[in-house]
Amino acid sequence: VVGVGQDITQLNQVMADSKRIADDLTRLIETANAPIFGIDVEGKVSEWNAKASSLLGFSKEETIGKNLVLNFITEEFKESVHNVLAAALSGKETANFEF
Known about the structure:
Blueprint: H1 9-31, E1 37-39, E2 45-48, H2 50-56, H3 60-63, H4 68-72, H5 78-89
Antiparallel strand pairs: 1-2
């Protein structure tokens, strides 16, 4: 019989710390006093906080997985919002974009 043991105390601590930080960031996003949304590389909504819901009138459940520009941006701003998001996804920064 051969046995191997390893102390994983430090690994467990790192995992607990990571979970705590992720929980803190989730709470920060959800309770922020500004609309915060996230999109994936296909432009589909992956995050939608409470302020975005109250300002824009769409619940998180209504938006998650749907294309942001096609479904939630008015026709007059679709092209400019699409261009800004495409630039952001390619690593180009756009400061203070308003529509």
